[in-house]
Amino acid sequence: MTILNQSLHWMQWPENRLKVASLILLLTLSACDPFPGSKQQATSTTTEKTRISFWNGFTGPDGQTMWEIVRQFEADYPQYEVEMEIIPWSTYFDKLMVSLGSGKPPDVFILHENELVNYVLQDAIRPLDDLVNGPQGVPVSDCLSSIWERVRIKVPGQSEANIYGIPLDCHDEAVYYNKDCFRQLGVPLPEQLDRDNFFHLARQLTIDQDKDGRPDQWGFVFGGSVRRHLYTLTAQFGGQFLDRENGICLIDQPASQKALQILYDAINKDGYMPNPIHDGSNLWQGFLQGRIAMYTDGIWMMNGMKKLADFDWGVLPYPQLGDQKAVWASSHVLCLPRFSDTIDGEAAWIFLTYLSNHGVDWSDGGQLPARYSQLASPDFTQKEHYPVFAAQIPDIIFGPNDPNIIEIETRMEPCLLSAMSGQQPMLKMVQEIKGSVESILRRGVD
Question: Of the candidates 78, 251, 280, 296, which lies 20 to 30 Å from 9 by C-alpha distance?
Answer without folding.
Answer: 251
